[in-house]
Amino acid sequence: MGDARLLRVAEPVPEALFGSAELQALITDMQDTMAALDGAGLAAPQIGVNLRLVIFGVGANPRYPDAETVPFTMLCNPVLTPLAPDLEDGWEGCLSVPGMRGLVPRFARLRYSGVDQRGQPIAREVSGFHARVVQHECDHLDGILYPRRIRDLSQFGFTRELFGEDLADD
Ligand code: NI
Prior knowledge:
Structural class: alpha+beta
Strand order of the largest sheet: 1-2-3-6-7
Bound molecules: nickel (II) ion
Order of helices and strands: HEEEEEEEHEH
Oligomer: single chain
CATH architecture: Alpha-Beta Complex
Mean pLDDT: 94
Shape: globular
């Protein structure tokens, strides 16, 4: 947070990149970064690449058996459509805002669409944590970090103080 590259509106992934080794190398780099930092998702602008590309996914975690899982997905040129006006508050963190969490309102249900690294279409209707992760990552493509979405800044702080432990940054 504070790096001007995180405030840009990212460019669409050009069709010429679909199926290319260059795009696959970028995705591999993003997957490695996300795994190394134990994140739930990552957007290309977070590693300095100004393209509309996000990856996300949460596997089963024995420490949090009741936590929702999200299928590992890579999505280029996403389009998000809320399915209802309802907003839900939930805690978020971000690899670009390390060590902090904030309570952020997000649409509870939405449809997202886009294409994968080969240009094949992806479309899903999701809710809850899955919908939250997608909205957080796609915000990065429009230069928006989650602190700008927080309505009550008393609900923003250091993870250690809020939750009494050092949770991973999402
Ligand atoms: Ni983030």
